[in-house]
Amino acid sequence: MSSKLFRVTRLISASRPAAPIVSRVFNNRTFVSTARAMAATVDSNFISRITAAEKQITNQDEPVAGGPTAQAQSHANQPLTGQVIHDITTGERKITGLDGPVPSGPTSIAQSILDASGSTTGSGASGVLDSETISKITQKEKEITGQEDPVRRGPTAKAQQHTGEPITSEALHDITEGEKKITGGDRVKGGPTSAAQSELAKSRQ
């Protein structure tokens, strides 16, 4: 079989039309590989999108020192990870004064790019407050409030403050404080804090 393959390979190599076909396949593979890498990298396109989202909030042409664009630039040419998103969230809080990210803001854009790239560490049991885990916390919050949008300083907002970080006792404490805000002072069984604890437990199995 190996000898047959060798003869076929020699015939293809010797054939004139085969060269461009091989070239096209190679180029296509290179393009796909590059596209995937770019989708999960803090490149110029990514930073431009963060800058555009920041401008929508500040109405200024220049990025704010320590803001989301500056945080993204500090990770230029690095892989897009939860830690990068956490830093962008910190920068976003600096320009908004809010506890959590705003819809279609820099953090939201960064998280959507990370999700689309398929490079998220979130498998639903990563032990990290990634988009998958925060989404579960948000769902539990909606079940309590009956509202589509998360409550300011509620469990989702508290979880977003720790985006990309491990689910620690401090993070759980903050989520619990957010949960108490929407329940009137009590934790509920199967609520946002329980969702976070469940993800942490799964990640340790």
Automatic annotation (TrEMBL):
Q: Where is the composition biased (Polar residues)?
A: 70-80
Q: What spans are recorded as compositionally biased (Basic and acidic residues)? A: 138-152, 171-189
Q: Which domain of life is it from?
A: Eukaryota
Biased composition, class Low complexity, residue ranges:
116-127
Which stretches of sequence are listed as region Disordered?
Answer: 61-80, 94-205
Coiled-coil stretches: none
Q: What is this protein called?
A: SMP domain-containing protein
Where does this protein come from, organism-wise? Didymosphaeria variabile
